[in-house]
Amino acid sequence: MRKIKFFDTTLRDGEQSAGVNLNLQEKLEIARQLERLRVDIIEAGFPASSKGDFEAVKQIAETVRTCSVTGLSRSVRSDIDAAWEALKGGAEPRLHLFIATSPIHMVHKLRMTPEQVIEAAVEAVKYAKRFFPIVQWSAEDACRSELPFLAKIVAEVIKAGASVINIPDTVGYITPKEYGEIFLYLQNNVPNIEKVSLSAHCHDDLGMAVVNSLSAIEHGATQVECTINGIGERAGNAALEEIAVALHIRKDYYQVETRLNLQEIKRTSNLVSKLTGVVVPPNKAVVGKNAFAHESGIHQDGVLKEKTTYEIISPELVGVPSNSMVLGKHSGRHALRNRVEELGYTLSDEEINQLFVRFKELADKKKDITDDDLIALIFEEKFDHFKDFYQLSSIQVQYGTNQIPTAVVVLKDGKGNEIQEAATGAGSVEALYNTLERCFQTPVTLLDYRIESVGGGRDALAQVFVKVRAHDIETSGRGTAQDVLEASAKAYINAINRVFMIEAMRGENEKVATP
């Protein structure tokens, strides 16, 4: 059987989703989980785009040892140099070069002739081969390119040393039949095509990213580029979990194999969803919470008699447990550590100790601690890296049907100074957010506010996700607590801290750029 490689771009193309900002620690945690999932290639970022992206790519390359780590690069030497500095410590460093090949991009964006585009692509590949053993070359907007020109430039970059040729459907425009025909055209019209692997990269603007990727595999592609949960720019990318499970369940049809550990799919999906704040729809294929739920009496009867009557994917295949271990207030630190490791998270001794304190506090309030509760606590402790910014000390909200909602908030800044403010609003959350805006002394626009229940029951944790804009920076935040208003405050503070962190990083970048 043919081997299909999975190129995961969650940390690069996926992070380009509007409002998603991952910090270094969050990116490292996702990279470690992708390694457990056994993807073949992790695209860790765009090293030349910022100091933060450079450092993230560098640390991921030095941390991950069983996957190849790559970074994106334009067809310019400075990008290639930055990528090599970031990736040279990797187990199998590779470069992902791109340049646009469609008439609309060459004329309006690049302002280059087709001959100039070929020259730039060839020069970039030759230069990159001085450093990188594997160079992947992408024809941006390939699916709206003229096929004779596409074949010509592909032949030239292969001569220059490219090892992988990627054919992106950059704007999610093409149909499965047309996409497959591009791969056949290149195989029939590029004389040296047998020297390279062909890769597919599909966007979901018309809802066809997964089926287009599968069509590419049917027509000769041996690599697919995708993201966890299908996140990405605009409508997103092809969803890794959907392609992977389709290839497994229909191995009789596709006749291909992968090296993925499918049992890590659900855990990976949960991690990416929690860290990005992008919620997985309940009816999402493979990883949605309803993917293995049966409500219809006829379906329930069939599944009880024989699972395969209505269940073509077993929950265990993708890591959905048939039962869960319940932790309570009598559980010790050892049991907690074991459960954290079983859930796939890596915590230091200090982080375990901090988590144990929070766990005990919650266990005194809740009878049973579910895995979802524990994951929420882990995220609160492990990924709140804003100790140098604002922290919530206390909130007090007064509300009544015949009263004006009023909030009083006490914050601590990075130096330990207390800030106390009060404000009113049309409702409790608005009063709370108006007060926090006064504390920050900066205009903040709330773009989105979502609340979820972690688990069920009256004592369930509340998890709040917000998206805000401040100082022309759009970012997201999350907060978890048993009280809805406390969770709302934490989410808002988390988002604003991210704004200040981004500004601080920009300031450092400007210092570096100044002679």
TrEMBL record:
GO terms for biological process: L-leucine biosynthetic process. It is an enzyme of class 2 (transferase). One of its GO terms (cellular component) is cytoplasm. Residues 4-266 form the Pyruvate carboxyltransferase domain. Keywords: Amino-acid biosynthesis, Branched-chain amino acid biosynthesis, Cytoplasm, Leucine biosynthesis, Manganese, Metal-binding, Transferase. Mn(2+) binds at residues 13, 201, 203, 237. Residues 391-515 are annotated as: Regulatory domain. It catalyses: 3-methyl-2-oxobutanoate + acetyl-CoA + H2O = (2S)-2-isopropylmalate + CoA + H(+). GO terms for molecular function: 2-isopropylmalate synthase activity; acetyl-CoA C-acetyltransferase activity; manganese ion binding. Pfam families: HCS_D2 (PF22617), HMGL-like (PF00682), LeuA_dimer (PF08502). It comes from the Bacteria. SMART domains: LeuA_dimer. The keyword Aminoacyl-tRNA synthetase does not apply. Its cofactor is Mn(2+). Transmembrane segments: none annotated. Pathway: Amino-acid biosynthesis; L-leucine biosynthesis; L-leucine from 3-methyl-2-oxobutanoate: step 1/4. SUPFAM superfamilies: 2-isopropylmalate synthase LeuA, allosteric (dimerisation) domain (SSF110921), Aldolase (SSF51569). PROSITE patterns: AIPM_HOMOCIT_SYNTH_1 (PS00815), PYR_CT (PS50991). Gene3D superfamilies: 1.10.238.260, 3.30.160.270, Aldolase class I. Its EC number is 2.3.3.13. NCBIfam families: leuA_bact (TIGR00973), PRK00915.1-3 (NF002086), PRK00915.1-5 (NF002088). Homodimer. Catalyzes the condensation of the acetyl group of acetyl-CoA with 3-methyl-2-oxobutanoate (2-ketoisovalerate) to form 3-carboxy-3-hydroxy-4-methylpentanoate (2-isopropylmalate). Belongs to the alpha-IPM synthase/homocitrate synthase family. LeuA type 1 subfamily. This is 2-isopropylmalate synthase.
